[in-house]
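Try it yourself: sequence plus zinc ion, in.
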Amino acid sequence: MNDFQDLYQEIVMDHNRRPRNFGKLDDATSFANGFNPLCGDEINVYLKLVGDEIADIAFNGDSCAISKSSASMLTDGVKGKKISDAIQIFESFREMITRKPGEDFSSDILGDLEILSGVSQFPARIKCATLPWHTFHTALTENDQSVSTE
Ligand code: ZN
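Structure, out:
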């Protein structure tokens, strides 16, 4: 156990105990549901998009500690952000999580979310960590599609 792993465990446990933005948005403009059959994680992501900003975000569902913590940190990280910035954060997160061992990675935009790279020590749990992110991305994308058909 090094300091980074200790910090990772500590932050994951904290977000699992006290998840941020946990619940449902009654005035959501976009919604997606994600399921990870490997672990049984189920996550709902609610977005309230105003103009080109994520005015509000919430999540709920029944999931393991890693998935819940990742969702909690995600919602904290993108709330109030521009949609285009949030998509960059998503892309950067995906790059960080899927990079090969030893491959260099640096990000100017992930900030505290970089702690989630600790999950790469536990390959079986990576899908738990990425589920909320893919669900979030689907909610954003589906909204884009519905807007463009109007
Ligand atoms: Zn899980």
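One thing you can check immediately is this: The chain has one domain: 3-141.
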